[in-house]
Design brief:
By secondary structure, the chain is α+β, with helices and mostly antiparallel strands. The chain is built from 4 helices and 8 strands; from the N terminus they run βαααββββββαβ. The strands form 3 sheets. The chain has a 3-stranded antiparallel β-sheet with strand order 1-3-2, with no helix packed on it. A 3-stranded mixed β-sheet has the order 7-4-8, with helices on one face. Helix 3 (about 70-80) crosses helix 4 (about 125-140).
């Protein structure tokens, strides 16, 4: 993934007065009101079949399990690339658009959840993602995550494990 590091850039667009006002009001609402997280159901039939078909060969070739998170992160990266507004952030009076995707992934540790960042997900293969997640998970559980690894995610993803509840 280091070959993708040199391709990282951002562009800035000044917001209109209307957009600035909307931004201020949304931030005010976020700071003062209860926020809602939504969950969408998806048909996992195809990804489950794909995983079943290739999991043994994948493990044999890479010595790492093929999970579902690589598909979720790859799909997220594709969506974020196709809709750059979702991958952007506001800095003062400007919207900053990124041409890269760094996904924050929740990892359970003995001391609680941490959210390290997997960088340049858009250019990664399923193996790169699974290996990156395994490495981050091990470092998190061992307490070896550098502070820089926890900073700069452009989009968060949770694995839906024990810390997530559906109502």
């Amino acid at each position: 993934t280091s070959s993708f590091a040199s391709l990282r850039s951002e562009s800035r667009v000044k917001m209109s007065r209307m957009r600035l006002r909307i931004s201020d009001r949304l931030k005010e609402a976020q700071n003062t009101a209860a926020m809602l997280t939504t969950f969408n159901e998806i048909d996992m039939t195809n990804i489950m079949a794909l995983r079943s078909k290739f999991k043994d060969d994948f493990l044999k070739k890479h010595q790492i399990k093929l999970g579902f998170m690589s598909a979720f992160l790859k799909a997220s990266a594709q969506g974020l690339s196709e809709m750059p507004e979702v991958n952007a952030f506001i800095d003062g009076k400007e919207i900053v658009y990124r041409d890269y995707v760094d996904i924050s992934v929740a990892v359970a540790t003995p001391k609680g959840l941490v959210v390290p960042v997997l960088r340049n997900v858009g250019g990664m293969s399923f193996f790169d993602i699974e290996k990156g997640l395994a490495d981050l998970g091990k470092k998190a559980r061992d307490g070896d995550l550098a502070i820089a690894v926890l900073d700069g995610g452009t989009f968060p993803v949770s694995n839906g494990g024990g810390f997530v509840s559906l109502f």
